[in-house]
Amino acid sequence: MTAVAGSLVQMVSLKGKALDIIVWGLIFLICLNGNAFIFGTNFIALPTLVYTVLMVSLVYANHLGVVRFGTYLIRARRWIACAIVLLVVYVASVLVIILPLDFLASSFPHMEQLNRFAKANSIRSVADIFSYLNLIWVLSLVLLPNMIAAAYYYFKRNYEANKRNSMLQKEKTEMELNFLRAQIHPHFLFNTLNNIYGMVMENERAGQVVLKLSDLLRFSLYESSGKRIPVGREVEFLTDYINLEQIRHHNTRVAISYDFEHIENKETPIVPLLLISFVENAFKHGVNATIGKAWVHISLKHESDTILFEVENSKPATKKERSATAGIGIENTKRRLALLYPDKHQLNIIETADSYKVSLTLHTHD
């Protein structure tokens, strides 16, 4: 599971790098278009390309310094330090943007529009750094790309965080389901072995029970490892378990009946070992805890993407003290239902003075 999560994280990381290239390529094109318009040149003119590379490098440096370090200062509420950083970044940006203009203008004297622009924005004193033209120039061609980069990284960070949280939640859910399933296996095994222990010295019926148990364990340990199995196979498993109980309670004290005939489509997928806990509970806390006559009725119906499963059993006249492990199977099943059938199941438990009934409705459509 960890390997799968790692692969997904790596995939998201690769997609993120590709998107980084696209965004910075877009910023480069925006700056290139603006510089070509201001210099009066085409897109591939050497001074335009050189100045654009310089400007995008400045935008990236500003992004690293202002967006990341500035965000830290804002969160720490260090307003004076934040103002100093912004002032230093602005002055540095003006110097990096304006000073190369004189060099480009002298290198390409035939480009009149470039020379006029360089002359209008030249720095002759400290006051020129804070001139209106330089302020507009820095804000328009540095601040705008920085805002695009900042917005992109903000949404990218949130997207990656949500992606990681989603993968972690999925991994946590699968680990919890595996844990619940691992608890079901020994829980079922111990209950059945206790039944055999009570019969082994009685007669040859113990051999029949062992054969039934081998089928049940084969299903429990191997076939139930998948996420879904056909409902018909789950019914076969329930039938084997009920037959085992019928062998055990062969006398007339216990009336056991079941009805699995009304299944519209036996290939309908269902989570394995989802229903057995309710059947076990009926025998363990109903039939086995009763000294006198007892009864159990189990039914499963499937129609129009809906499964209705019901288990009803008699209650003992006197309640036995519940052990520390009592109810583990039912609680595990409730948790599995919440994880695997959210908003797709209804579980009703009706308890009267002499009976206990569980009714579970599953909606199997996607």
From TrEMBL:
GO terms for cellular component: membrane. GO terms for molecular function: phosphorelay sensor kinase activity. Keywords: Kinase, Membrane, Transferase, Transmembrane, Transmembrane helix. This is Histidine kinase. Residues 175-251 form the Signal transduction histidine kinase internal region domain. InterPro entries: Bact_2-comp_sensor_kinase, HATPase_C_sf, Sig_transdc_His_kin_internal. It comes from the Bacteria. The keyword NADP does not apply. The keyword Kinase applies. The chain crosses the membrane at residues 21-38, 44-67, 79-101, 135-155. Gene3D superfamilies: Histidine kinase-like ATPase, C-terminal domain.
